[in-house]
Design goal:
Layout (H helix, E strand, L loop, with lengths): L1 E6 L4 E8 L2 E10 L7 H11 L9 E5 L5 H18 L3 E4 L1 H6 L8 E7 L5 E8 L3 E10 L1 H5 L6 E4 L1 H5 L1 H8 L3 E2 L10 H13 L18 H11 L1
Organism: Geomonas paludis
Enzyme class: transferase
Protein name: tRNA (Adenosine(37)-N6)-threonylcarbamoyltransferase complex dimerization subunit type 1 TsaB
Length: 230
């Protein structure tokens, strides 16, 4: 099953191309908010290197968030366009579940954290075997409120874990575990693992339901509410 997977939920965007359990190629765009603008170039390069066209794929997959409001919209819009053009199905998945799958078969639970700005994090707690299993579902909280949910040894991963490392260590002490730096980068190929299993079970996401998971209102929505309340 050939799957093109896209993630633009954070500063580090990525695209992967996989065939069943084989990674054909992956493009990581680093920590740059302009990376979503290079998304189609990355997709074209991967397909060209694998000598494939969008029509030759079996399905597409995309992270739905939470994460960057603009980035998530760009990724979903791109995948929707490819799906409409080819008639291929799509799988949507949580960006936090994808990040947690950087550490499959971990002996401890995994806390993927994205920096949500405004003194908050997007976070969750997962047990990661062959697939992620949510212990605490995706949420947005202050670091302190999120850490109050942690009662057992936990591996913290993601840019939120990097930013709030001192806070996490001070709060949890020996319960807090931090992996090597490379595990903090969201990887589309980790999302492809989730998408492959969903596709094998026929659990595709209807395009009408392929929408961003924001967890909180955007700046535009907040501004609109303020205007309407005046």
């Amino acid at each position: 099953m050939k799957i093109l997977t896209v993630d633009t939920s954070s500063n580090c965007s990525s695209v992967s191309l996989s065939d069943d359990a084989t990674l054909l190629g992956e493009c990581l765009l680093g920590e740059d908010r302009s990376n979503s603008g290079r998304l189609m170039d990355s997709i074209s390069s991967l397909l060209q290197a694998a000598r494939l066209t969008p029509d030759g794929l079996d399905c597409f997959a995309v992270s739905l968030g939470p994460g960057s409001f603009t980035g998530v919209r760009v990724g979903i819009a791109t995948v929707k366009g490819l799906a409409l053009a080819t008639g291929k199905p799509v799988v949507g998945f949580s960006s936090l579940a994808m990040l947690a799958m950087n550490l499959p078969y971990s002996s401890e639970q995994v806390a993927p954290l994205f920096d949500a700005r405004k003194g908050e994090v997007y976070g969750a707690l997962y047990r990661c075997g062959a697939l992620p299993d949510a212990v605490v579902p995706d949420t947005v909280l202050s670091p302190q409120d999120f850490l109050a949910l942690v009662k057992h040894p936990t591996i913290f991963v993601g840019d939120g874990a990097v930013r709030y490392r001192e806070v996490i260590q001070e709060s949890l002490g020996a319960l807090a575990i931090f992996p090597p730096w490379h595990a903090n980068l969201p990887r589309a190929c980790a999302g492809a693992v989730i998408a492959r299993e969903a596709a094998r079970e026929g659990k595709f996401t209807p395009l009408a339901q392929l929408n961003p998971t924001y967890l909180r209102a955007s700046e535009a929505e907040i501004a609109k509410r303020k205007r309407e309340s005046v």
